[in-house]
Amino acid sequence: MPATLPTHPLAVLPLKLWRPRWFDGVALAVGATAPDIAYALGGALVVRSHTVAAMFWWGLPVTMLTAWLVRLGAPSVAAHLPGALREYGVLRRVRHPWWVTVVSALLGDASHLLWDLVTHPGPGVVAQWRLVRDVSDYAALLLLPLFLWYVGRRHLIRRWHGPAPAVPRRPLLFWSVAVETFAAGAFVTGRLEYFGPHVFIVRLIVSAMIALLVASVALHFVGAPGDRPAAVAAVPRG
After folding, report:
1. Maximum distance among all alpha carbons in the chain?
2. Ranges of the chain whose pLDDT falls below 50
3. Secondary structure of 24-70 in the HEC alphabet?
4. Residue 228 in 3-state DSSP?
5. CB contact at 8 A, 206 and 38
6. What is the pLDDT of residues 38-71, one digit of tens each?
7. Could you give the CA distance from residue 53 to residue 174 in angstroms, rounded to a whole number?
8. Is the pTM of this model over 0.70?
């Protein structure tokens, strides 16, 4: 489904709000999307990634790698976001016990399979199930941004993990590189074999992630004296 990536993280991220120290939020969110990341490759791998066995040979390694990349780019990406969203930059130095990350990754993947079991029963799906599926997908487009806003507004990331590191901000460079890289990814996506809208959109999402990572790397190679560090919103008392 085109909206599957917002839907699946939203289903599992409340666990992080419930017990922040028990779960790795990045691994939860990435694990919940791991089966659908296979859409970027297309073909039969998509079916194989949506199985219990694939949680271990596909979901876990893909989640561990992607979570590492997310943490790697977090400071530079977050520094170019507005307000309290800059606090997500601290994710770079957050380190959970390995077993917390592994369990969170597997829980995220399992939640994806369970949610698909409910909302994608099979070829004989009745109208009521289609309604559940469509409502959940489109609602997630609104609810996931609200969730991120809530976490930022309450400064929960900073309360859990401390302040984000101060990193240089060069908005023109960062967003220019990000947009150009995404445009290149979108062009390549348009040239690849078309497997349907779900594959096309996931490929665009992967292109966007790569674009942000490339922009983050560019900042490290083109840094200059006088760059302004990102200002992080103060946490109100009480």
Report:
1. 63
2. 1-3, 225-226, 233, 235-238
3. CHHHHHHHHHHHHHHHHCCCCHHHHCCCCCHHHHHHHHHHHHHHHHH
4. strand
5. no
6. 888 876 566 688 899 999 999 999 999 999 999 9
7. 39
8. yes
